Amino acid sequence: MSIENRPKIEGVHHFSPTVTDIDRSIEWYQRVFGLERVPVKFPHYEDENAGYAVLLTDPHSKIAIGLHHHDENAGERFDERRTGLDHIAFSVAGRDELTSWVNWLDELGVDHSPITDMTEPFRYSVLVFRDPDTIQLELFALG
């Protein structure tokens, strides 16, 4: 099968972190991203009796964030140096949009990096911040 015939990816549908305090995380993600909560809990696939997920959606981008509660979670904080997720990056329209995000995060009191502009290996700008469990989130603009 040639690369031209490979199945296509349309984009990111959802991001699903496991969190230590689901109510705190719901409030934080709704406040920071303006997400709407789907009013039901979702069982874990093949582990239905060990916790649940709450789905938050963004009507503008159509991205969803599924916050997961696991009954056996010992409450350890996220660390990207362990096997698993390192970070997730969300695309924004451009550097001006990153500036708007800086202002928004400042208004909310959310710690963040300065906007970093890179030219290698290609031109991009990035803004980095973390959720209440220290999961690294990035806002990423090409060009």
Automatic annotation (TrEMBL):
The molecule here is called VOC family protein
The VOC domain is annotated at: 11-142
Coiled-coil zones: none
| Provenance organism | Streptomyces humicola
Which InterPro entries did the record assign?
Glyas_Bleomycin-R_OHBP_Dase, Glyas_Fos-R_dOase_dom, VOC_core
Q: Which Pfam families match?
A: Glyoxalase (PF00903)
Q: Which Gene3D superfamilies match?
A: 2,3-Dihydroxybiphenyl 1,2-Dioxygenase, domain 1 (3.10.180.10)
